[in-house]
Amino acid sequence: MKPPLSRILRILALLAAAVLVLSLPVLLTPQEAAIPGTEATERTLLRIWTVNAPGGAQAWLTAQLRTWEKQHPGVMTYLRQVSPEELADPEAVLPDMVLYMPGDITAPEELFLPLSGEMPVREALLRCGRWQGEQYGLPLCWGAWVLAIDSAAEPGAATTPAPTTLLGRPAATPMVSSTEAPYPLEGVSRADCTLRSPGGAALLTLMRTLGGALPPLPEGFGQSSAPAVYAAFQARTCASAMLTTGQVTALEGLVSAGKTSAFRVMTAEEIITDQVWLASLTPGAAPASAQLLGWLVSRDGPETLSTQGLHTVREDLTLYAAGTPARVEQAAQRALSAVNAYIPAEDVSSAAWQVLQGRMDFSQALLPLL
After folding, report:
1. In angstroms, how far is CA 316 from the centroid of its own chain?
2. Nearest to 148 by CA among 173, 179, 183
3. Which residues make beta-bridge pairs with 79?
4. Residue 189 burial by Cβ neighbours in a 10 Å radius (0-12, 13-18, 19+)
5. Other C-beta atoms within 10 Å of 185: how many?
6. Among 173, 145, 172, CA closest to 270
7. How far, CA to CA in Å, does 52 sit from each of 55, 58, 147, 277, 357?
8. pLDDT 10s digit of each residue in the chain, 370 long?
9. Is residue 220 helix, strand or coil?
């Protein structure tokens, strides 16, 4: 006997009601209104890669990024160290921003976007980040090469004056009096290892500092890396050495702690450097990346460079009042040459060697590198 039609209709109605009840959470969830004041803040993650950096620059950038994030609550930054090979990998997913030094990248047009707009940076430094008529890299800060001399080569000459900066912040001041003494050629020449230097811009600066007054040069001169030269001078196995200003700042900390002997520093009358830190944006970079880049060279960011012994790229800002940093700053105001960031390091080294060996005039060698 078949159930009556009314019973079948009741059963179907109950089943339909059950299906409707089960589907209610799915249908209502997207339509639920948020409680006022609990809306989620839209987040932007800026990915930043660093290939190389001058001494102290990484610490300066980390502090700057923390300040930037506080001023922009919706922006977070992720900082990562990579190798030149990783950056050049065609399979790599590029970040928003890349920071690097001269010699790290030779084809910026394949990786970066040309930059435009107002850039409050010295023209000599802007040229460092310019390639084929386009501005691919924006310099953020720079250091220099100086000649360090062990106190053993000139007893009593090395002193340690109090650090002084115009901004009243702690900053490293090399062990040197206000009147720079000449290179102690005789004392250095008596050492087993007289002088060590990396090649390239360091060697060009050395020639500008001493001219032809060089001591007998050890075997393999000019072929060591910057870290190797620093380690040798710290260990007192060479009487003098070309160091970066960042290395001098680190070495002074060791002197203050009684972990190494005093030294003094000679600076050239003009600055020739490859110790420039540049930043570039990649295709697809978030709009906040350009805002961050501009902020890093505004007056707020560069004023803190003195805490790391670094120099500002701005012409309207002076950081140091005394010591080697001030002399470097003053020399840069007279003449500043920054090696173009995208020229292969081998070309810079080759030019420096030709100057050292007297095969090429200094200006003839330098101009093609700028």
Report:
1. 20
2. 183
3. 48
4. middle
5. 14
6. 145
7. 10, 9, 22, 8, 30
8. 445 545 544 544 444 444 333 332 322 223 333 334 434 456 899 999 999 999 999 999 999 999 999 999 999 999 999 999 999 898 889 999 999 999 999 999 999 999 998 899 999 999 999 999 999 999 999 999 999 999 999 886 654 443 444 443 333 333 333 457 899 999 999 999 999 999 999 999 999 999 878 999 999 999 999 999 999 999 999 999 999 999 999 998 899 888 888 999 999 999 999 999 999 999 989 999 999 999 999 887 778 899 888 999 998 999 999 888 999 999 999 999 999 999 999 999 999 999 999 999 989 999 999 9
9. coil
> How far apart are alpha carbons 64 and 68 in whole angstroms?
6
> What is the spatial distance between Cα 125 and Cα 138, in angstroms, rounded to a whole number?
8
Tokens at 61, concatenated: 């950038």
Cα 76 from Cα 241, distance rounded (Å): 41
Residues 313 and 142 sit within 8 Å (Cβ to Cβ): yes
Q: What are phi and psi of 15, to 5 degrees?
A: -65, -40
Structure tokens at 119: 């850039």
> From CA 17, how far away is CA 158, in angstroms rounded?
93
Output the pTM of the full model: 0.83
Which DSSP helix (H) or strand (E) runs through 211? none
Tell me phi and psi for residue 155, to 5 degrees.
-50, 135
Element (H, E) at 185: helix 185-189
Q: Cα–Cα distance between 319 and 298 in angstroms, integer?
A: 14
- Contact indicator for 239, 187 with CB cutoff of 8 Å: yes
Token reading at 168: 């009243």
**Letter for the amino acid at 327?**
R
CA distance 260 to 234: 7
Report residue 156 as tokens: 């009593």
> Are the beta carbons of 271 and 128 closer than 8 angstroms?
no
How open is the CA angle 78-84-86, to the nearest 5 degrees? 65
Rounded to whole angstroms, the Cα distance separating 47 from 272 reads 32
